[in-house]
Write a sequence for this structure.
């Protein structure tokens, strides 16, 4: 399997596996994550999620696995929009999912949305289990991206759909320069101010720069067996939507 730059970017040190470090990092920032996430994106992340959900709407998936679900924003939005029968939010961080469970309970959705700690490199679900598998802003945290995508393919039912949202680097020169300044200065400084977690908000911008993007990500999906792969970008290329179908 190919190696990608984001797999080499680690939050804390070079001794521990990336998955262990990512889990600790997100456990540490869970309480402030939603506030910082929406603040740093100026709330545009909600619109990006809506665009991803719009892709799934014509297919009316009833069982959905949301990988790297975090605090469950995508899972909650999918239930509200798609009215799926069952959505499982899977994540390596119990701290993030505890926040998600409270949000789901407060919304009255606990009958339809649940959370399970999972390693996306080795999901516990049987083959052909879900109508759709999604991931929003989490692929860059995978310890092995191809293995994670292969697992997403495995647990999808035939004719099921994958939907991945991921942050990306703008291609336009001026926007790219502005984005670089924002990611190198504003994101780390605001993150440190509010979360007291220095490593996380230095790691996150660095991982965005080297995660597979555009054609590279589309080819990765195709290699794992997905057909009709497609890439769309939003907000001057800051966010990319990757989609495909399991034959």
């Amino acid at each position: 399997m190919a190696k990608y730059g984001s797999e080499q970017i680690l939050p804390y040190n070079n001794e521990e596996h990336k998955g262990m470090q990512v889990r600790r990092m997100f456990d540490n920032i869970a309480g402030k994550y939603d506030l910082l996430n929406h603040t740093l994106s100026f709330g545009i992340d909600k619109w990006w999620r809506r665009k991803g959900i719009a892709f799934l709407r014509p297919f009316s998936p009833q069982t959905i696995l949301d990988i790297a679900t975090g605090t469950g924003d995508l899972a909650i939005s999918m239930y509200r929009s798609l009215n799926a029968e069952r959505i499982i939010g899977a994540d390596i961080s119990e701290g993030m999912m505890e926040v998600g469970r409270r949000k789901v309970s407060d919304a009255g959705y606990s009958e339809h949305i649940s959370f399970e700690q999972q390693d996306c490199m080795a999901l516990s679900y049987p083959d052909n289990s879900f109508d759709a598998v999604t991931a929003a802003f989490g692929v860059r945290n995978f310890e092995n991206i191809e293995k994670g995508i292969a697992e997403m393919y495995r647990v999808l039912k035939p004719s099921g759909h994958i939907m991945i949202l991921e942050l990306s680097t703008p291609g336009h020169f001026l926007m790219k320069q502005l984005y670089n300044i924002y990611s190198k200065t504003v994101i780390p400084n605001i993150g440190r101010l509010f979360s007291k977690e220095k490593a996380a908000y230095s790691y996150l911008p660095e991982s965005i720069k080297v995660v597979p993007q555009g054609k590279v990500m589309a080819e990765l999906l195709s290699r794992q067996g997905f057909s009709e792969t497609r890439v769309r970008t939003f907000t001057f290329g800051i966010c990319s939507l990757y989609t495909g179908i399991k034959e």
User: Anything to note?
Assistant: The first strand starts at residue 63 and ends at 67. The radius of gyration is 17 Å.
